[in-house]
Amino acid sequence: MYKELVYSLKDIAVAAGIDIMDVYSGDMEVEHKDDDSPLTIADKRAHQTIAAGLEKLNADIPVLSEEGTIASYEERKNWKKFWLVDPLDGTKEFIKKNGEFTVNIALIEDSYPVLGVIYAPALDTLYVGYGEKGAVKIAQASNRGFASFDEMWSMGEIISALSPEGSAEVVASRSHMNEETEAFINELKDIHDPVNVVSAGSSLKFCLVAEGQAHFYPRYAPTMEWDTAAGQAVVEAAGGSVLDNSKNRFAYNKENLKNGWFLVKA
């Protein structure tokens, strides 16, 4: 149903990644938003590239982007379908120049992600999640052209979220380790031996679960809807789940766009 959208998203995400890497390779000026979170020209350029690409792709689907104008809830509540975008997820990692930042684009339909892409420009790796079709990982994405969705899918590496057997891998944020996360890890030790902790930045934490490199990603620190939507699309397509504190599937387009805590699991 959405094959052409998924196919086109690859080029849009990679184009935004090229904008980001142009800034990454030089000196960067850092601004701060009202909430004191960092902002760079790379965030802005990537947003402009993605917004233009999505407009050209399908002008009838509205875009909600971290760096764009945020529509009021009175307007958004009537959206049955919309793009949810984080042009540069992991700005702190970008500023540190550790490579762990991503471009996130998801399509939300009736409150849930139905497809999503995550592109890690410094790694030149693209993750694609497309509902029941599954999830793939595409290495050297900027250097690979595909004639169609089917060719792109067949050339990607199929990835699957894997349940832990004996030992368990827990992925945690480099910037947001806290007491609640440590308590979750300690509880796992009653079930799994050993429990190993893997650190990662941005939505790459979702990708580690989606490709079976980790089994759990607990998040007890604040995030926004654009931080998680594409990651959820990839994880769910790979067979995993993203659950809220009531153990329900994580939903989107709330009046308050700030997320509650969640658990990503294989």
Describe the protein.
Helices cover 32% and strands 27% of the residues. Strands 3-4-5-6-7-8-9 form a 7-stranded mixed beta sheet, sandwiched between helices. It starts with a helix and ends with a strand. Helix 1 packs antiparallel against helix 2 and helix 7 packs parallel to helix 8. Strand 6 and strand 7 form a beta hairpin. The model has no long low-confidence stretch (mean pLDDT 93). It is globular and about 50 Å long. The chain contains 8 helices and 14 strands. The protein is an alpha+beta fold.
Question: Count of DSSP helices?
Answer: 8
Strand content: 25-35%
Q: Percent helix among the residues?
A: 25-40%
Structural class: alpha+beta
Largest sheet: 7 strands, mixed
Question: What is the N-to-C succession of helices and strands?
Answer: HEEHEHEHEEEEHEEHEHEHEE
> Distance between the terminal alpha carbons, to the nearest Å?
26 Å
What is the β-strand count? 14
Q: Compute the gyration radius: what is it?
A: 17 Å
User: What global shape is seen?
Assistant: globular
Mean pLDDT: 93
Low-confidence stretches: none
Strand arrangement across the biggest beta sheet: 3-4-5-6-7-8-9
Quick structural overview:
Helices cover 32% and strands 27% of the residues. The protein has helices at residues 3-24, 41-57, 73-76, 91-96, 149-155, 179-188, 204-210, 225-237; strands at residues 30-32, 38-40, 63-65, 81-89, 102-109, 112-120, 125-130, 134-139, 157-158, 168-173, 195-200, 216-219, 241-244, 262-265.
